[in-house]
Amino acid sequence: MFLIDKLQNTFNKETYKNVFILFTGSSLAQTIPLLATLILTRFFTKEQFGVFFFYSSLCMVLSMVISLRLELAIVLPLKKDDGKTLFFSSLLTSAILSFVVFLAIFFLYKPIATVLGEKNIGKLLYLLPISTFSLGIVQSCSFWFNRNNNFKNISITKITKSTISSIIQISLGILSFLKYGLIIGLISGQLASAIYSLYFSFKEKITESKYFSFGKMFTLINKYKNIPIFNTSISVSNTLSNHLPIFLLTSFYSLEMVAFYGLANRIIATPMSLISQSVGEVLYNEATKRYNNGQSLRSLVLSTYKKLAKLALIPSIILLIIAPYLFSFLFGIEWRLAGTFTQLLIPWLFIGFLNLPTSYIITILNKQKQLLIYNILLLIFRFFALYIGFKFFESVTYSIFLFALIGVLFNLFLLFYIIKISNTKTNIKIS
């Protein structure tokens, strides 16, 4: 009740309803794999979890490229027909680039496997195009649902993915199909959610000729060209930056350390991200409408920051104190180090939790160039933070601590920057 009251106080009645739908769906979608993890850690080894986190991180990085972030433009035009065209453009781009990924893997398997680490990924590389295309579909459909205020389907898509993935992972664990069981379950969930979201999106007959033409598609892509040019680079650099420990801990330390970090990040980031993402998807919709009407976004941004801070502060403090004991109790004493990693990550994740919903403001206000510079600097500083912990301290704990510290400092800067630019208004309506 406390959480629901907090969300209700944050937004008006209609926005609260949409946030609540997304939050409920996201809560179920995130709770299912968390509960499944309690079982999966009994079946699968730390090395197998390390490979799983490595593959899923690779999927997340590539998913930021696969549609060139054209899905972000779907909600921007006032005309629904233009939104339909951009939706189809996003799907088509995902299909083309997924095929490019397949060709790259097919012809360049050895060098790619060498760079990523044969022991980390191996033949699983060939499954990446399936994952990337599935994720591209879901991303495109989610923003199409968002444009049409169909937040129920966004929630069901998320629940479908996590349910199918968890059921298959547990089933394969019971059947002792352990080597790739976690990854097979993940891909199955990705495919199921893509099929569901695509089916309900195409019920509106998106490909009818009166809604779509290639000439119109290229005109709209050119109009919103800053999104594929800058948002793709921003998203890739940001996602790569967030998943950098997964890739570097493998090289610096071991797959076991990747498993500890991956589990810590999954457990603590999940409850935070399910709220912030749900709020962000609705905030993007509402902020776009306000901006199109020439209104300032400052009050909306400040209100969101304040309410989310109140919401997350006490749980963050509690986790900061009990994390190692909690992980030992839930997953076994051998996973205690993941709890220690959690303590180190909480300050960064807390501030990141505040910034994630409001970061959409940067897209609306066309500040992608500035954000790209920010993300590139963040990526560089995080790399050196992890490297310094390895090279000079020879300690994975120092690596994670320095990584989190850089995250705190950069996110504080981003927070004040978003507040500053949110006072911008326009008298020109987006068509």
Explain how this protein is built.
The chain is 80% helix and 0% strand. It is globular. The protein has 2 domains: 1-16 and 225-431, no CATH class; 44-223, no CATH class. The protein is mainly α and 431 residues long.
Care to give the gist of this entry?
This protein is an all-alpha fold.
Give the arrangement of secondary structure elements.
Elements: H1 2-10, H2 13-43, H3 46-63, H4 80-107, H5 109-116, H6 128-147, H7 151-174, H8 181-201, H9 214-223, H10 226-252, H11 255-292, H12 298-331, H13 336-358, H14 360-364, H15 368-391, H16 396-421
| Strand and helix order | HHHHHHHHHHHHHHHH
Structural class assignment: mainly alpha
Number of helical regions = 16
Q: From the alpha-carbon coordinates, what is the Rg to the nearest angstrom?
A: 21 Å
Task: Note the main sheet.
Answer: none
Number of separate strands: 0
Tally the structural domains.
Answer: 2
Q: Identify the quaternary structure here.
A: single chain
| Uncertain residue segments | 427-431
Distance from N terminus to C terminus (CA atoms, Å) equals 41 Å
What percent of residues are in strands? under 5%
Mean pLDDT over the residues: 85
Helix content: over 70%
Q: What overall geometry do the principal axes of the alpha carbons give?
A: globular
